[in-house]
Amino acid sequence: MASIRELHQQLVKKERSALEIAQEALDCIKTLEPKVNSFLCVTTEQALEQARQVDARIASGEEIGWLAGIPLGVKDNMCTVGVPTTCGSRILEGFTPPYESTVTEKLKATGAVVMGKTNLDEFAMGSSTENSAYGRSHNPWDLERVPGGSSGGSAAAVAAGECVVALGSDTGGSIRQPAALCGVVGMKPTYGLVSRYGLVAYASSLDQIGPFARTVEDAAILLEAIAGYDPRDSTSLKVEIPSYISHLTPELKSQTLRIGVIQETFGEGLNAEVEQAVIKAVDTFRELGAEVQTVSCPRFRYGLPTYYIIAPSEASANLARYDGVKYGFRSPDAENLIEMYCKTRAAGFGAEVKRRIMVGTYTLSAGYYDAYYLKAQKVRTLIKQDFEAVFNQVDVLVCPTSPTTAFKAGEKTEDPLSMYLSDLMTIPVNLAGLPGISIPCGFDNQGLPIGLQLIGNVLGEAKLLQVAYAYEQATEWHKAQPQV
User: Fold this and answer.
1) What is the pLDDT of residues 51-105, one digit of tens each?
2) What is the CATH number of the domain that holds 123?
3) Using one digit for the tens of pLDDT, what is the confidence trace for 421-456?
4) Count: domains in the chain
5) 132 an active-site residue?
6) Which residues does residue 472 pair with via DSSP β-bridges, in sequence order?
7) What's the CA gap between 374 and 348, in Å, rounded?
């Protein structure tokens, strides 16, 4: 699948129609879905109608934006009117939202063509997309391996060419980790930059919607379209959105760019080939003219335990609404209300969701709140302060996105802690509310992609995208495609 710029030029020059582009994507989905399972719902008729509307606009002489006629995937935890939103869970099987999420509303207004809803770990809880109630997604680079999670369906769809770009949500790494494992670009924006209205909540103080793409430029275009203030989201930031595309330049020598390599992300637990690829990437930044130094974030390693207290606590509160009364699945064989609650939630939620609800309920309970939840919030503040300190020394931070490349399906399902460690490098960024991006930086000896994570200061998306773009233009990693 071509880039947004290439497809846009083809549409404007009338070399191809939006309908032809949409049909090509639908044909690709039809061919690959039996292998990849990245979509839970394909909106064929809606996509074709959206494409026809774009063609009509072009025929009438109307000027179209970057995303008009561009095939797009949407993670199935964002509300879409008339289209099911399941969150990968049995408890929402058949649920069709009565309203549209802000991000999908914005994208439909641009003329983007929504191909369907992509697979995910149930309620975005997982690192492998194996927790979906509707079957796991497969990594296009090796179908026996996971695409990462929780936005594995979106990452796999973009990597396989089933859509040009896709939306994911990132609570502890759920965009960046699957982007790394699938060899694509994935970005988590600053907390509050993109509206969460219509995003089904997992952990409200951590969740953030962001783009998947094959190139940094495509990610910048999609981010610019979805960013911005929304009065319907109380955490939305009232800031002016810059033109991210105009900041993309292939060189860094015209300015003094200071890059900090986080020393706590290297050492035990990091795959040797991942480490080598990241070190080579750092050398590339030096060649591009950046000043590189090693920096320390002492509390970085406390991100994982802190996250697994705060996120389940918020999930426990957010998922209390799924009781079988107003919407979604309801157990049919209950004799009273309490029994109906119990049987509905027992049958509707999967094992990982139940695990996190129980952990969260425990940490919020009387006698344990101060010992766990309150202490975790204090550590979260310390982690944020570490980042603030290093951003006085450097402009952008660098580290691996994931400690390993894609692992085999089933390899970690019986060991939750091992699975949780997949997000070791990404979680602190969410706790601090910072922007982060994962870009391809190499392959291991099995041909599996390796991801490089760049972390910016609050609202530093323009700088982050600029640095990522310069690296991308200096390398060839993003041009490789899986032979799925």
Assistant:
1) 999 999 999 999 999 999 999 999 999 999 999 999 999 999 989 999 999 999 9
2) 3.90.1300.10
3) 999 999 999 999 999 999 999 999 999 999 999 999
4) 2
5) no
6) none
7) 30
